[in-house]
Description:
It is a single chain. By secondary structure, the protein is α/β, with parallel strands linked by helices. Helices cover 35% and strands 16% of the residues. It has 12 helices and 14 strands. It has a 7-stranded mixed sheet, sandwiched between helices. A hairpin with a 2-residue loop joins β11 and β12 (329-333). α3 (54-66) runs antiparallel to α9, α4 packs parallel to α9 and α10 runs parallel beside α12 (374-393). The radius of gyration is 21 Å and the shape is globular.
Amino acid sequence: MNPDFLRYQAQTSPYPLGMEVSHAAGSYIYDTNGKRYLDFVAGVSAVSVGHGNARVNDAIKKQLDLYSHVMVYGEYAQGPAVDYCKLLVQHLPEYLNKVYLVNSGTEATEGALKLARRATGRSQLISCYNAYHGNTMGSMSVMGFEERKQVFRPLIPDVDFITFNNESDLEKITAKTAGVILESIQGGAGFIEPKDGFLRKVRERCNQVGAMLIIDEIQPGFGRTGKLFGFENYDAVPDIVIMGKGMGGGMPVGAFVASGDKMDLLSHDPKLGHITTFGGHPVIAAACLATLQEVLETGLMQQALEKEKLFRSLLVHSLVTEIRGKGLMLAAMTASPEITNEVILRCQDKGLILFWLLFEGCAIRITPPLTISEGEIREGCKIILETMDEIAAGR
């Protein structure tokens, strides 16, 4: 399969891992040679309730037998999307009460940026250095990593940047600011948590100047940090919340959520202020509903914090400088990108899937399905420690 994969399918890096996938179940992926790999990445935080989750699969199959795509978003009332949005809103703060369903996290970012400008009548957007909110043109404009976007300029104008956890930078948020967008936990930067009430202080500054606070929950959302959304850990409720990845249990989806009065602005002056053909797709919405029910009803959120403790207790090694993150959004840090690369690649050879973060070369991504068992955590950590022993012995 690999020759055709490389010839016919566009690549995102010069050296893709190239595993030829046969099937996946629970916490494991199997290649076409029958080799089993324990998955500590979950499709980059997307397969939140495990590969082939029965509840999600059954919901997809049931909906497929009823109908698939019938009309562009927002015209017909379709049960899966309506039921999903209702359940989601019931578990969000009171004024986050209307959902716009799209196809991916970056689309959700685009919609949120448009809504902030539409609602405030202002143009300036403020993001954080080393932020990542997606890779379409608007999302890239608020990406805080120049190396990845310089060849695509010019991007959208009137964007400025602050440093995550730097309180003095909040002065840049003024009466000219339409929206401030930031991750509740910085993902690509190295799973950096807000400190000293930073999110709350950004919230307060936005209130002072009339700017909208947009919080990106694409990675932390849907139980990964022990709460349904990461911002719930940090005493700051956004005006707009962005979500994706783990929302669909492995299916492609995204959403942005705001108050009804703000969201309704996209329906007039002009009409069709934001549109999508496949957003709210009934099969995807059915998967989202089943995923959310699974997360809410099975104790997976609370278990994520216990599993974090287990990871931290096991991953003690001279090559691990620290463990960053919260719940099952963790990064094991090493002293150099070279060590990190060696650990990730050797572990894959041993049947454990780890991965990188976008901008922090020293980080080893550990974001398994929320359903991962204690035994599987021990199994994977044993492989990591054995691999690190081999690397340390050879240095």
